[in-house]
Amino acid sequence: MIRKCLFPAAGYGTRFLPATKAMPKEMLPIVNKPLIQYAVEEARDAGLQQMAIVTGRGKRALEDHFDISFELEHQIRGTDKERFLAGTRELIDTCSFSYTRQVEMKGLGHAILSGRSLIGDEPFAVVLADDLCLNLEGDGVLAQMLKLYAKYRCSIVAIQEVPREQTQKYGVIAGELIHEGLYRVSNMVEKPRPEDAPSNLAIIGRYILTPDIFDLIADTEPGKGGEIQITDALMKQARNGCVLAYKFKGRRFDCGGAEGYVAATNFCFEHLHQHTL
After folding, report:
1. Which contacts (CB < 8 Å, 24+ apart) does range 79-83 have?
2. Residue 92, CA atoms < 13 Å, CB-side half-sphere
3. What is the pLDDT of residues 58-86, one digit of tens each?
4. I need a surface site. Which of 25, 90, 159, 243 has the fewest CB within 10 A?
5. How high is the mean pLDDT in each 10-residue block of the chain (277 residues)?
6. Per-domain residue ranges of the chain
7. Which of 109, 104, 48, 140 has its CA nearest to residue 234?
């Protein structure tokens, strides 16, 4: 079964400038925990223990976060501040972390291809940390998708309905409903104009991918915006009936922009952190 989760984290985070000028967007805190930690915890809670992170220049803070800080831990030892590091320390103790760099920013497809040496020839999950997904009433989004993979053994993308006028921000799918909330993908378009969108079902930052995706990405020409799009590579799989789209249970916050980031912070403070700070 799936053991590894890939986190593309090399992007510049331009929607959050100037905060991201010197700080990775994945380190932006939601209350007191950075986005990348929420993402890794979601993967860990789904049973994955091998975390593969694609970084870039200026992203060393990601590696430092999932490492022991002897000076800091010595400074707070024996105080009530120790509890704030307990979650991070548990991840360090139970998961492995490997890193590689995406030298050029050529799109999500290229970022995933950059992680090939960390993944090898096996199916894997992909999580985009700035899409914060929370489900307070059951399994996390990745855990839900892994259960589907165990049954169908093919690539799966997470989707949600979006307003028609927002389709140009997403990859958008069309497909046949084969089960409640589950579609067999027949078409996939990257950032279509509202009038050209095949539906209002948008792909968000959770994927299960089979290893043949790497060769398909390598053979994919740059598409929308001159970038190598993962949707173009997935469409090649979809033509063989090998891609499912899953309308997940839970809430998703787009933390790459201020509106979603503030909404996520308010939600997490109210539901997750209010009594622990």
Report:
1. none
2. 13
3. 889 999 999 988 888 888 888 888 888 88
4. 90
5. 95 88 93 96 97 92 91 84 88 96 89 96 96 94 96 95 92 92 92 91 96 94 84 91 93 93 95 66
6. 4-273
7. 109
Full-model pTM: 0.93
pLDDT at 128: 97
Q: Output the six-digit token pair for 242.
A: 């090998």
Q: Residue 148 carries which side chain, given as an amino acid letter?
A: L
Burial-class residue 135 by CB neighbours within 10 Å (0-12, 13-18, 19+): middle
8 upstream amide cis, omega within 30 of 0: no
Listed residue (48, 53, 49) closest to 36, CA to CA: 53
As a whole number of angstroms, the distance between CA 173 and CA 231 comes to 9
End-to-end alpha carbon distance in the chain: 37
Tokens found for residue 252: 């998703």
For the domain made up of 4-273, give the CATH fold: Spore Coat Polysaccharide Biosynthesis Protein SpsA; Chain A (3.90.550)
Q: Which tokens belong to 237?
A: 């799989």
